[in-house]
Design brief:
By secondary structure, the protein is α/β, with parallel strands linked by helices. It contains 18 helices and ten strands.
Length: about 475
């Protein structure tokens, strides 16, 4: 999908969401004025001088934009159904109207208590109906373009034999396209003949899948492998999870019979969509919002500790105050992580080494910092700029990741989320002293991924605070 088309569609949504909120608010105010026995001839002047109208042109639309952004309504606009779009708009409208009602309208005088309910229902109806009308119109036009193959999503098929050929033929023969623009296939095993090669080009081997996705700007990947190729599925999924592509697989017939899968299309080619999003978009937005707010608050409130620790490091050992090192973050992208230096200089002159109990490389002041996590205060700056989150698997160096992946390929699943200052693995297991312990800690971080939510994040932060107050860090 061309990014330009996506941006144009989002722009349309934003413009008409603004108009919808303003029109709904204006009509609502007009109703309130008329219902309050205001003379129709003076209604125009009353509305123009009404301070609520000014709020309706600026504050109300700004509020709706924020709510839509938090709930992720400006993302993946082309990949929605009309029912899904209306349902999402209904939920947002209900929540937004409740907030507006209690913040703006609850203290305004009305004739009877029933008028409050009529006002709420009217505002909800106006906002929902106008917003939905524009959105569903734009979405319907986009869906028609997708069906006619005017709009399409760059797609690869992972597999090259009978199943791959079958799914390719089904997708290409659809009267109404599902939007998949097949650019080529990726082979999994080596064959004398790739059956799909006669219909679409071979883009490479499955071990090069991340490069292929980046090079061809792939948006969807359909896994259509043979039973004898299933041994590679873990490796394939691990690499796909490091990207933003939408992953779909072919359901086996017994899965369909048992009802154990959910289809991404009822009328088109049956495919199971593997949802990579570990949290709903609204939770991810709130998580990022909390990251920013808490980081700013921590940087301000902990500034005395920050400068005291800075002086302590400077006075107790030679060398730089800060330790900056490259770590691997979201989707395998490297970033610079900052900490207060807790070791003597040249601590790794013989190569990378993990810290251990009674590590002679740690300075006396460094031991104290580690116990109460003072060394990690600078990481709030990493969180603020978006390299890290407050809660997430601890970031590792590529040197150790390469060793871990040899024994536990599923470690790559951790790169589906931003690394964090604290994690469930850090709380339950602590610092690892060798590769085996890092793999042991991995199961806790994978457990976090399986149960990722704002509630779990708060729980981990509370446990971390208790560890810091009790001085149980190491």
């Amino acid at each position: 999908m061309e990014k330009k088309l996506q941006k144009i569609q989002v722009f349309k949504y934003i413009v008409f969401d603004y108009l919808s909120s303003v029109i709904a608010w204006f009509v609502f105010l007009a109703y309130r004025r008329i219902n309050g026995s205001i003379d129709i001839s003076t209604l125009k002047n009353q509305l123009i001088t009404d301070k609520n109208l000014i709020i309706g042109f600026i504050a109300i639309p700004a509020f709706w934009f924020l709510l839509y952004y938090i709930s992720g309504e400006y993302k993946n606009i082309f990949k929605r159904s009309r029912i899904g779009e209306f349902s999402q708009t209904l939920i947002s409208s209900l929540i937004g109207t409740l907030i507006i009602f209690f913040v703006v309208l609850i203290n305004q005088e009305v004739k009877t208590g029933a008028e409050y309910y009529r006002s709420f229902i009217l505002l909800l109806f106006l906002h929902l109906s106008i917003t939905s009308f524009f959105r569903l119109t734009f979405l319907t036009l986009a869906i028609k373009k997708i069906h006619k193959r005017i709009i399409g999503f760059n797609t690869i098929i992972i597999g090259s034999q009978k199943k791959a050929v079958q799914i390719y033929n089904e997708l290409e023969s659809q009267k109404k396209s599902s939007g998949n623009r097949i650019l080529g296939f990726v082979n999994v095993n080596l064959y004398d003949e790739y059956l799909l090669a006669s219909q679409v080009q071979k883009l490479g081997w499955f071990k090069d899948i991340k490069r292929i996705i980046s090079e061809f700007k792939i948006e969807e990947a359909i896994i259509a492998i043979e039973p004898r190729e299933h041994k590679n599925i873990s490796h394939i999924l691990a690499d796909l999870y490091e990207t933003d592509v939408e992953v779909k697989i072919i359901p086996e017939m017994h899965d369909i019979m048992l009802g154990s899968v959910k289809m991404s299309s009822i009328f088109g080619t049956p495919l199971i969509q593997i949802h990579q999003g570990l949290m709903p978009q609204w939770e991810l937005s709130i998580k990022r919002f909390l990251d920013v707010v808490v980081s700013i608050a921590a940087i301000i409130l902990l500034s005395p500790l920050f400068f005291a620790t800075l002086i302590g490091v400077k006075l107790t050992s030679k060398g730089p105050v800060f330790y900056t090192h490259e770590r691997i973050g979201l989707h395998g992208k490297p970033f610079k992580m900052h900490k207060f230096r807790s070791m003597f200089i040249d601590a790794e002159k013989n190569g990378p080494q993990l810290s251990c109990k009674d590590d002679p490389r740690i300075t006396p002041f460094g031991k104290f910092m580690r116990k109460v996590r003072l060394d990690e205060i600078p990481q709030f700056f990493n969180v603020l700029i978006g390299n890290m989150s407050l809660v997430g698997p601890r970031p590792e160096r590529q040197y150790y990741i390469d060793q871990i992946v040899k024994k536990a390929p599923h470690y790559k699943l951790l790169q589906k989320v931003k690394p964090g200052i604290t994690s469930w693995g850090q709380v339950k297991f602590g610092y690892a002293e060798n590769i085996d312990e890092m793999i042991e800690r991995l199961k806790y971080d994978l457990l976090y991924l399986e149960n990722m939510s704002l509630a779990v994040d708060f729980k981990i932060m509370i446990y971390t605070a208790l560890i810091i107050m009790q001085g149980r860090g190491k």
